[in-house]
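Colleagues,

For the teaching module next term, I've prepared a clean inverse folding example: a structure given as tokens, and then the sequence designed for it. I'd like students to try predicting residues themselves before seeing the answer, so please don't circulate the second half yet.
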């Protein structure tokens, strides 16, 4: 299939390549915060997560908000404290579906050329 034809047809990959998700994951500080939170294995406050990287509380808070809006994290407010947690099932399902869609786009091997 030529690129022009591919651009006109729709497939599962078109819906799964979520620009907001990849934009949220495309920033090094956000990735560091996500990795820290994922390794902790439980919800953490913004104050706790500030210890993961060398940026101010307000910057960490903004980064976590971007990750929440992209569907990567959940946020729960207790009093004045906001706790963030990784949406493990959502993230693994999203990446598995994307991997499957990418694999589905791969050219089929010719049985004679194995």
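(Answer key — instructors only)
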């Amino acid at each position: 299939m030529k690129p022009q034809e591919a651009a006109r047809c729709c497939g599962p990959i078109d819906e799964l390549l979520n620009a907001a998700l990849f934009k949220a994951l495309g920033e090094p500080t956000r990735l560091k915060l996500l990795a820290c939170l994922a390794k902790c294995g439980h919800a953490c406050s913004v104050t706790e997560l500030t210890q993961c990287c060398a940026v101010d509380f307000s910057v960490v808070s903004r980064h976590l908000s971007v990750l929440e809006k992209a569907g990567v994290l959940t946020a729960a407010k207790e009093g004045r404290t906001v706790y963030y947690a990784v949406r493990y099932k959502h993230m693994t399902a999203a990446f598995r579906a994307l991997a499957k869609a990418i694999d589905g786009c791969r050219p089929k091997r010719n049985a004679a050329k194995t």
